[in-house]
Amino acid sequence: MDITFENVTYIYQKNSPFEHKALENLSLHIESGSYVAVVGHTGSGKSTLISHLNGLSIPTEGKVKIGKYALSENEKINDMKELRSKVGVVFQYPEHQLFEETVEKDIAFGPENFGVPKNEIKTRIQKIIPAVGLSEDLLERSPFDLSGGQMRRVAIAGVLAVKPDVLVLDEPTAGLDPRGQKEMMDMFYQLHKEQGTTTILVTHSMEDALKYADHVIILNKGTKYMEGKPEDVFVQREALNRVQLDVPEIVQFISEFNERFDTTIPFQNQSMTELAQMIQRTLKGAESP
Amino acid sequence: MNNSLIIGQYVPGTSIVHRLDPRTKITIIFFYVFIVFFANNLPSYGILILFALASTFISRVPIRFIMKGLTPVWFLIIFTFILHLFVTKEGTVIFDFWIFKFYSGGVIQGIAISIRFFLLILVTSLLTLTTTPIEITDAIEDMLRPLNKVKFPVHELALMMSISLRFIPTLMQETDKISRAQASRGVDFRTGPVKERIKAIVPLLVPLFVSAFKRAEELAMAMEARGYQGGHGRSKLRELKIEKIDILVYFVFLAVITVLLLTRTYG
């Protein structure tokens, strides 16, 4: 499903002393089947943007289009449920939403609400459990007996079990150990590749944005600050520093290397190995006349 | 988030009303609540209304904001008025309609009670609008200090109050967050039959309780780690101090009481 924001402004607690503009005149387009990273400093409007994606917030001004659904001040749709079954959101610390007696029931909660038949839910759970890195004997346990990382996986499984067309991830790996983070991100990427799920990743991590996304949107103070391919956006160091963001480590490394050895190695979103080979070639080339 | 009820919502400011010692504000409101019931004629109501409106004006809290916050209370005020209209049978009949007879006494009573209601709510919400919850708790702790003599745990009570006040916004945020998460999983809190909507509360309440308990445990641990042992010998970060302006306000309020007692009708 294509997602389009047309001049969206969102104001919290309008007409009160606490009035606060979270989004201002934001326009953007997310193509169906793409992997988009939304990056921004704290308070840049990332979370507000997310809540517009499944109708939790309705724009104060402007219009949001998600597939065939349009959301604006004057066109409210009656069947939010249908939209929400298509757009799955993994919120920050999703383990806080667990409540059922067993892991299985909690994962089944979403699909049940959206009217997925019981046996279909069962087969979905069978598939999802290994995909999120859980073992099947946990299904009968209480989610509150699990470790933090396992709880996170259960909560994510609960969102995936709905089989959404669009998957929105709000800092899905915050607070996990490095290995867990990598596993989780790889899992989402695989899902994106295999099922063609439109994935929107909201993150602080430039590394993740660079590694997985094919389009990056940088938000600042509720407006779009930059947008483009990761390899084009992440080389603009000054512009990023201005909104309290850093360039990814590899970009940082290349620019420092170029400066010290007076070389001109370009950044093309290459892997570590490729970069090593490039460096080798450049240095060798410099030696021989 | 539902923010229509303003009681307990602080609006930052630097007006005289904001800067008054919280004890002064609490004392004055305490007595104001009493004397509202002494007023019984036009001038005595006039002086009370003047005092309330003047305080509101000086506080610089936007009128529109106060009015919006009073919306849930309007219903109560109007209901009381109508009740008086129908029930009170004093004075002369001014209007006769079918089986109902409206008396002049009813109208006057209705207006009077509504004004009292309005004044009470206006003044008390002015307290919470211009005073931070922490200031209020500090003031209450200070004012209850004599009860320490009879072994009443004043400090602990104040601590409990300030902790619960401190966590109201946190819990509200948490509720908001969880209800959004569950709404995304297909829970419908707004529409549907009542039975379904009551069932929809479970996925909200369970996580809320879990996180509240967890938070309480963490807070207790953090307090102990920082050496908290109770109220004995604890010094204060914010010392309450009665300033000249407080004394002045007390005198103004005494004048209001005097005028009220002089103008009200007796007997």
UniProtKB/TrEMBL annotation, chain A:
GO annotation, cellular component aspect: ATP-binding cassette (ABC) transporter complex
Q: Where mainly found? A: membrane
Membrane topology of this protein: Peripheral membrane protein
The organism's place on the tree of life at top rank: Bacteria
> Listed GO molecular functions?
ATP binding; ATP hydrolysis activity; ATPase-coupled transmembrane transporter activity; cobalt ion transmembrane transporter activity
Q: Which PROSITE patterns match?
A: ABC_TRANSPORTER_1, ABC_TRANSPORTER_2
Tell me the CDD domains matching this sequence. Answer: ABC_cobalt_CbiO_domain1
Where do the ABC transporter domain residues begin and end? Answer: 3-246
Database matches in Pfam families = ABC_tran
**Where is the protein localized?**
Cell membrane
EC code? 7.-.-.-
The protein's UniProt keywords, in alphabetical order, are: ATP-binding, Cell membrane, Membrane, Nucleotide-binding, Translocase, Transport
Into which family does the record put it?
A: Belongs to the ABC transporter superfamily. Energy-coupling factor EcfA family.
Q: Sorted alphabetically, which PANTHER family does this protein's record hold? A: ENERGY-COUPLING FACTOR TRANSPORTER ATP-BINDING PROTEIN ECFA2, HEAVY METAL TRANSPORTER
Role description = ATP-binding (A) component of a common energy-coupling factor (ECF) ABC-transporter complex.
Quaternary organization: Forms a stable energy-coupling factor (ECF) transporter complex composed of 2 membrane-embedded substrate-binding proteins (S component), 2 ATP-binding proteins (A component) and 2 transmembrane proteins (T component).
Q: What is the name of the protein in this document? A: Energy-coupling factor transporter ATP-binding protein EcfA2
Automatic annotation (TrEMBL), chain B:
Q: Which residues form the signal peptide?
A: none
Q: Which molecular function term from Gene Ontology is one that the record holds?
A: transmembrane transporter activity
Where do transmembrane segments lie in this chain? 29-53, 65-87, 107-129, 247-266
**Keywords per UniProt:** Cell membrane, Membrane, Transmembrane, Transmembrane helix, Transport
Superkingdom, natural source: Bacteria
Task: Cite a GO CC annotation.
Answer: plasma membrane
Q: Where in the cell is it found?
A: Cell membrane
**Membrane topology according to the record:** Multi-pass membrane protein
- Which Pfam family, any one of them, does this sequence belong to? CbiQ
Describe the family membership recorded for this protein in Swiss-Prot or TrEMBL: Belongs to the energy-coupling factor EcfT family.
Its biological purpose is as follows: Transmembrane (T) component of an energy-coupling factor (ECF) ABC-transporter complex. Unlike classic ABC transporters this ECF transporter provides the energy necessary to transport a number of different substrates.
Q: How does it assemble?
A: Forms a stable energy-coupling factor (ECF) transporter complex composed of 2 membrane-embedded substrate-binding proteins (S component), 2 ATP-binding proteins (A component) and 2 transmembrane proteins (T component).
PANTHER family referenced in this protein's UniProt entry, alphabetically: PROTEIN ABCI12, CHLOROPLASTIC (PTHR33514)
Protein name from the UniProt record = Energy-coupling factor transporter transmembrane protein EcfT
